[in-house]
Design brief:
By secondary structure, the protein is mainly beta. Helix content is about 5%, strand content about 35%. The strands form 7 sheets. The protein has a 4-stranded antiparallel β-sheet with strand order 1-28-27-26, with no helix packed on it. It has a 4-stranded antiparallel β-sheet with strand order 2-3-4-5, with no helix packed on it. A 4-stranded antiparallel β-sheet has the order 6-7-8-9, with no helix packed on it. The longest helix has 13 residues. The chain starts with a helix and ends with a helix. Keywords: Signal.
């Protein structure tokens, strides 16, 4: 058998498919894709709303795992690396983490406006904390709490308890430290906290018990199992949003979730947790990004309206449907920098042929530009799925994403979009 046919047939058999769909391995010809990790082990970055690329555009952050396909155990260590995009994508180890999951990694990211400092979560001395690492000197400082997201002004972070998330939404939290409140539906001692990135001083902004005490659409929800997810701070660092989620019950013997969760999106002040507003009580909020200091673009189904990406105004129930003709399915949405929020970067989950689409959408002209379609083999599902989670560099000229289409495990890729955005 000719070698290339053997490889083709072996691959088809491994995927359990009679035939691969078109464009299973290659993006559109107009947008060539470059893999920036070597494929020797699984590599990825994680979530879509973090700074992966430094302000100069030269260095990318990445994570390397020793395996795929199962939940990381307490002793499974992640390697943190720096990729030099101007030196043959050379990987340099920065450190390790024992606090990570497949969807959001260890919250690895650059500190805003910094060319030298990055941050990630780790399990240190029996607690989830965060490391601030200087990529030039190698010096580190340890902050006493784990971070979820950073303020764009670079002064503080907000976070929540990752063992609580792992208990109620496995794959988005961390193992290694059990949830001490696993038998409490809405604990009063944990919730959302704010932490100073210089001093490590932190304070509670909102407890789970406080949030659970607020009815949703007139119905009490304090009898359900609550947690917080997907925290994100506004561009002016004055407001934040978060998803309050709850399940009606869990399996008592082991705490594994057995019922779907319900979601509401809430905004509040970052200074003290005041001025709280339930901006989307529908129960359906999914992926979200700030559009300036007082608007949010979210995939949801507002009460009385259809599914879609909705531009929602803080402190009101005003909303506008964006991309109704082109952004018709859920994805991980961000804005391309320096485009006045006219260009949306987005992706899709695998379709019936297991293809994930990476695309740009221009709001003023309703133009959709497909950057590529990428195969997600069937074993990548549930907690272990590999979403594209597209991110742009800070110049708005390149897109980076995670993908499994080469059958090398999850790897990191980049594509240049300058001719579209600047053309």
């Amino acid at each position: 058998m000719i070698r290339r046919n053997f490889l083709k047939n072996s691959l088809l058999g491994g995927l359990g498919m009679a035939a691969l769909p078109p464009m299973a391995f290659f993006p559109t010809a107009d947008f060539p894709v470059e893999r920036i990790t070597d494929g020797s082990k699984p590599h990825w970055f994680g979530y879509y709303d973090k700074l992966q690329i430094d302000p100069t555009g030269r260095y990318a952050l990445g994570m390397q795992a020793p395996f795929e396909g199962h939940t990381p155990g307490p002793d499974d260590q992640l390697e943190i690396g720096l990729i030099d995009l101007q030196d043959n994508n050379k990987w340099r180890k920065l450190g390790t983490s024992n606090a990570w999951g497949w969807q959001q990694g260890c919250m690895l990211q650059w500190l805003p406006d910094s060319k030298e400092e990055v941050i990630w979560n780790d399990r240190i001395d029996g607690a989830f904390k965060s490391r601030v690492h200087n990529v030039k000197t190698g010096k580190e400082r340890i902050l006493p709490k784990a971070i979820y997201t950073l303020a764009p002004n670079g002064k503080f972070a907000v976070g929540t308890e990752f063992n609580r998330i792992q208990n109620l939404r496995p794959g988005y939290g961390y193992v290694g430290i059990p949830d001490p409140y696993e038998k409490v539906k809405a604990p009063k001692d944990i919730g959302i906290y704010r932490m100073d990135l210089k001093t490590g001083k932190h304070k509670m902004l909102l407890s789970l018990a406080e949030m659970a005490a607020i009815p949703n659409q007139g119905e009490p929800v304090d009898g359900y199992w609550h947690w917080f997810n997907h925290l994100l701070i506004s561009p002016d660092s004055k407001r934040m949003l978060f998803l309050n989620r709850w399940r009606k019950k869990v399996r008592e013997q082991d705490g594994v979730p057995t019922t779907p969760f319900i979601t509401r999106m809430v905004t509040m002040d970052t200074a003290d947790g005041g001025d709280r507003y339930v901006i989307d009580p529908s129960g359906d909020t999914s992926h979200i990004i700030w559009d300036g200091p007082d608007r949010i673009l979210a995939w949801t189904k507002p009460i009385g309206k259809e599914w879609g990406f909705w531009l929602m105004e803080d402190h009101t129930q005003n909303s506008k449907h964006i991309g109704a003709e082109a952004m018709t399915v859920n994805g991980h949405n961000t804005y391309i920098p320096h485009t006045n929020n006219e260009w949306v970067l987005n992706d899709t989950y695998p379709d019936a042929n297991r293809m994930q689409t990476l695309y740009l959408y221009h709001i003023p002209t309703k133009r959709r530009v497909i950057l590529g379609k990428f195969l997600s083999p069937p074993q990548y599902k549930g907690e272990y799925r590999c979403d594209l989670h597209p991110r742009s560099n800070q110049q708005g000229t390149e897109v980076f994403f995670d993908s499994t289409h080469e059958k090398l495990g999850r790897q990191i890729y980049r594509v240049n979009i300058e001719k579209v955005i600047r053309g």
